[in-house]
Every structure is written in C-alpha cells, then in structure tokens.
Amino acid sequence: MTLTEIIFVLTGTCAILVFGGKVASLIMMLITKLFCPLPEAFFTSLGKWAVITGGSDGIGRAYAEELSKQGMSVIIISRNQEKLDRAAKKIELKTGGKVKVIAADFTKDDIYGHITENIEGLDIGVLVNNVGILPSQIPCKLLETSDLEERIYDIINCNVKSMVKMCRIVLPGMQQRRRGVILNVSSGIAKIPCPIYTLYAASKVFVERFSQGLQAEYISKGIIIQTVAPFGVSTAMTGHQKPDMVTFTAEEFVRSSLKYLKTGDQTYGSITHTLLGRIVQSIPTWVLQSEAFQHHFQEYVKNRDRR
C-alpha cells in the first residue's frame, strides 16, 4: 500500500469515526432515559440545598422551581430584592418547599463575602450558575456598544467571574462530601463565531472551556459539572419570544435539560436544540461573518423586540 493510499484510508477512517460518534451522541440523547436515567431521589441524595444565581426570573427561577419540586430547599441569588421575594413566594406556593433569598449584584466585586456568610455550613448538593447579561438588548458591533467600558466590566464580572467565584465557594464542600452537581448555563451561540454578539459569545465560550476542565479535575470526586447551552428560550433577555417548536418556555427547557444531566459535560438541553446546534455548526464561517448576515440578524432582533 502506497503512502497516498494509507493517508486516504486513515482520513476516511477518521471521518467515519467522527460521524459515528456524532450519530451515537444523538441516539443517546433520543433515548437518554434508557442510557442515563436519574434515580427518583437523585437530587435529594446530593444534598439538602440548591443554589441558583440569577434565580429571580427566567431560566434561573425555572431551575429553582423544578429543584424545589424534586424535594430540595433552594437559595436564589439576584440583585433585585423585590423580585427575589416575589419569586420565593411563588415557588413556595407552587412546591411547598423552603426558599431562601440573597440580594447580590453580580456586576460588582464586593458581594462574595456576603454570599459566603449566608450559605456557609449548608449541605449544598446543586449549584446552578445561570446569571448573565447582554452588552445591549439589540446586538451591535463592539465599538457601537453604549457605555462600552462599563459594559466590558459588567460582562466579565457577571458572565465570567461570577461562575468561577461561585464554584470556588461551593466546590470545597462538594469535594469533601464527594457528591454534587454544578450546572453552568452557556448559550448555543458559543458554538460558532458570532459577530455583533462578540463580547457575550466570548464570555460563554469561557463558561464552556472552564466547565470542561473543571469536570476533568473533579469527576473522580463524584461531582458532575455540566455546561447547558440553550438556543431559544422565552425570557426577558430574549424579549419574551413567543414559544414555538424551537423556542421553549423557561420551565419546559429546564425540565428537558435535567434529563440530560448524565449524558456528558455539555448538553444543548433538548433534542430540538441539539439538532439546531448541528445545523448551525454546519454553516460556513464566512457566511456567519459576512456583513449581510450581521445586518439581517440585527434587523431580526429589532423586529422581534418591537413585536
């Protein structure tokens, strides 16, 4: 066999293996209950408490409500005390579970001592790092962002630093007890180059890489660390889009995503978003980076928000 033939055979074998791996991953998601079922008392076996950042609204509140339904007491952390109190009352009425609130603005640096004091000594089984912000409601080029210096600071603090610091606070107890789950909420757009969402997408790429490395470091300690990367979810951040085949309510998405907790260190959280992710990743990079795409995407978001 010549060198050229060997190269072609190896290339073909690698292509088959990669494609086969993707097919196997998709099949596993389709029948996840068979491959990776969660025991009935799975969450309460991890610990008494769940901590959720950005827990007063949207995906964060949906996680808090669902984990409360599973029998856990929950701590929701966000900056607005009134919204926190309202969310806590609604969750308690719906689930009968215990809800504790901590008011903290994750764009600030001086909040972590306060958070540590309020959760110190608790048996925390689940941490959901959900809090995050956009640089601007309407996507735009970096230098067109209003108050850019402040926005850079806020994005790094809220989307990046908060996750690392919360892991730093909660992980030692999980390591000592040799059990726990950390869910870090990313975004589907972290999978592709995403101009006009550059700062936000880059912060979510950090979430994914940090989570993968951390999982490799602590999987032997019995701790699950997973990135959850949704596409369309109807929340305030997405202008409360009307739910459809691709866009979920926050409650629907959270219920779906928790089913994939044992399928690996990353998940899109649903079959629909997994298929969408495969499609988006197959789009040539030059299309995503073109001025035409940027313009049409910006106009789409403007029209969506007006509706």
Please provide a written account of the structure.
- The chain is of the alpha/beta class and 307 residues long.
- The protein has one domain (44-306): 3-Layer(aba) Sandwich (Rossmann fold), CATH 3.40.50.
- The protein is built from twelve helices and nine strands.
- It has helices spanning 3-30, 32-35, 42-46, 58-69, 81-95, 112-119, 148-177, 198-218, 250-258, 271-282, 285-288, 291-306; strands spanning 49-53, 73-78, 99-103, 124-129, 180-185, 223-228, 233-234, 248-249, 266-267.
- The strands form two sheets. The chain has a seven-stranded parallel sheet with strand order 3-2-1-4-5-6-9, with helices on both faces. A two-stranded parallel sheet has the order 7-8.
- α8 (198-218) links the parallel β5 (180-185) and β6.
- The longest helix has 30 residues, at 148-177.
- The N and C termini lie far apart (64 Å).
- Mean pLDDT is 88; it is low at 3-9.
Concise summary:
This protein is 53% helix and 13% strand.
How many strand units?
9
Mean pLDDT: 88
**What is the CATH homologous superfamily assignment?**
NAD(P)-binding Rossmann-like Domain
Helix and strand succession?
HHHEHEHEHEHEHEEEHEHHH
CATH topology: Rossmann fold
Query: Total helix count?
Result: 12
End-to-end separation: 64 Å
How would you characterize the largest beta sheet?
Answer: 7 strands, parallel
SSE class? alpha/beta
Second CATH tier, the architecture:
3-Layer(aba) Sandwich
What is the overall shape?
globular
